[in-house]
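Why do we care about 3D structure at all? Because function follows from shape, and shape follows, mostly, from sequence. That is the central idea of this module. The next example makes it concrete: a single protein chain, its amino acid sequence, and then its structure expressed as tokens.
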Amino acid sequence: MKAAIYCRLSEEDRNKQFETDDSNSIQNQKAMLLQYAMEQGWEVYNLYSDDDYTGSDRRRPEFNRLLADAKAHRFDIVLCKTQSRFTRELELVEKYIHGLFPIWGIRFVSIVDNADTANKGNKKSRQINGLVNEWYLEDMSENIRSVLTNRRQNGFHIGAFALYGYKKDPGQKGRLLIDEEAAAVVREVFTLFSQGYGKTAIARMLNDRGIPNPTEYKRLHGLRYQQPKRKNSTLWKYFAISDMLTNEIYIGNMVQGKYGSVSYKTKQNKPRPRSEWYRVEGTHEAIIDRPLWNRVQSMVAERAKPFDCGTVGLFARKARCANCGYTMRSSKNRGRHYLQCSNRHVAKDACIGSFISVEKLERMVIDELNRLVAAYLDKDELERHLAFCENLQDQKKQLLDILSTYEKRIAEYTKGLRDLYMDKVKGLLNDSDFAALSKEFSSEKSRLERVLLDGQRQLRSLEDRIAVGDNRKALVERYVTLEHLTREIVEILVDYITVGKRIPGTKDVPIEIHWNF
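And the structure:
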């Protein structure tokens, strides 16, 4: 008779010298079972050992190898210390010990609790053992769930991985500390979005500068991370930016329990309703301040659609038709942007069809804003209390580094195009391959040049601010008396604008501005 010995231990043995070593308890199980097999006169076919696996885990590698060999009838007996070492699930007891093993001609023996399928009289005993083990699993699951729920309710972090931008406090379990290197990227993402950049555009900017995404960052810094399943996992993607912008952990709130297990018998999780999440405010230091967070959440909720080049339209989701109340949609014709009622083409006479150019609306908003400033704002008082940015030089240095990265990338694509042409001249590249590759290189080079141009404009603006220095009156005049709007200014100042139909016989379009102040 050939016996297959199966051993399992669910707790990691602290006396292991190496990760590949079996624990002492596994060794004790092996010694006990080998001696028993020898006393019975059985030949040992193989030893199957699963260390650090629970009795409810159906993915145990050696357990599944044992079942495959049993089905192939490579041995006659499965020998365990107890029935619970084989499984704690009553379902698997019935499926294998009482079901498939007899069909495959396999005898099951556990020596401590005297389970033996060759003895017809102890089937009920085996079933009771299975039921008791099932209860044990359920009770253990409930106990663990209760402990974790209590820790979540008290604001302790219980996840296996810290959120990007944070790290686990080595001195206090369940507490998060700011990882300043990653936190700087998080702040930049929020700032760029608040300034009107789209999520895909932000991802491209980070990738262009070679900034690793959260998973790659953790891998490079030796931190725990979840193994990615997709290719190009080192790049930033739209959804990584999208998830980051709505995660309350970045404002110091601990939000957990978004997913819950289907059952203690499976590792499968499913989303839980927001009402069942565990949310505790002020559990750790915030990376994002409240005003910026609130502005970003408002923009996310509006689902503003981007114009070209990844930037959000100046009045996206802000302009509404005065007649039907629908949000006006953007269009572009001959290089100029327009806003028109999104309801005008739904059905005949559905709306009057409000229509205005973005340039005209911008001028009208600026004129009204300057009128309000002149009427109600005391510029002398503002000059006395104006707070100045003390890190303009640091901002300039950071921007110069970014522009340098873009310039290097553009130079690389320029050299690449030259090399492609030389390969074509030498006959190393045919015409069709040259055309396809050069088109791809030229397209990416043009995109980077547009981004570089935008960055250079920001640099000139920053240098102008530095040149002004402490001339408070000049600063007040420059930023209070506006000539152009930015998306950030519109977000801060404007709640919404209603636009009516052009007055017949004139070029005037009636508007009504609803301010945030």
